[in-house]
Specification:
It contains two helices and ten strands, in the order H-H-E-E-E-E-E-E-E-E-E-E. By secondary structure, the protein is of the alpha+beta class. It folds into two domains: about 40 residues; about 120 residues, Rieske [2Fe-2S] iron-sulphur domain (Rieske Iron-sulfur Protein), CATH 2.102.10. It is elongated and about 85 Å long. Bound molecules: FE2/S2 (inorganic) cluster (FES). FE2/S2 (inorganic) cluster binds next to loops. The site of FE2/S2 (inorganic) cluster has 11 residues, from loops.
């Protein structure tokens, strides 16, 4: 009687331990498997379209620098990275949002309001206010982000420009 009862308890404990093990594997294992087979960088709409601020922030006719937050979600790494852009308000809700990365090797260009040109500090690349190459080794114009206005707020599509830009 005692022996049988003890054996029964042992069986119950065995099934409890197996149950806890299976539950733990399910809780930890499923997300790990999904993470392995999902794309390494996810671009859902919320991550794609990022806010730059109210359109009034960008004076008409001026080229103004701005920062946008980008998200990096890769495997277990999740972080926010600031990215610099230039915004040119052309008036009548028409904007140009430039990537600051030079199209030669990616150095950050700087806008000079006196000459109204973008200058690259690395190899002498110069771009016009329209973003066209005026001088130096860059082979193409500055990259432009797609943008939209939502209730007077400017947003840019991060996926509209190559990742290195
Ligand atoms: S990186 Fe800009 S000119 Fe080379």
């Amino acid at each position: 009687m005692c022996e049988e009862s003890s054996l029964s308890r042992r069986k119950v404990m065995k099934w409890v331990v197996l149950g806890i093990g299976a539950a733990t594997t399910g809780v930890l294992g499923v997300p790990a498997v999904l993470s392995t087979f999902s794309p390494t960088i996810k671009h859902d709409d919320k991550k794609r379209w990022r806010p730059l601020g109210a359109k009034e922030r960008f004076a008409e006719g001026k080229v103004i620098s701005a920062k946008v937050e980008t998200r990096l979600d890769k495997d277990f790494m999740h972080m926010t990275l600031p990215k610099d852009v230039y915004v040119w308000n052309k008036g009548q809700d028409e904007f140009v949002v430039y990537s600051r990365s030079c199209t030669d090797l990616g150095c950050p260009v700087k806008f000079d309001s006196g000459s109204e040109c973008f200058f690259c500090p690395c190899h002498g690349g110069i771009f016009s206010k329209e973003g066209d190459v005026m001088n130096g080794p860059p082979k193409g114009p500055l990259h432009r982000y797609s943008y939209r206005l939502i209730d007077g707020y400017l947003e840019i599509d991060l996926s509209s420009v190559p990742v290195v830009a």
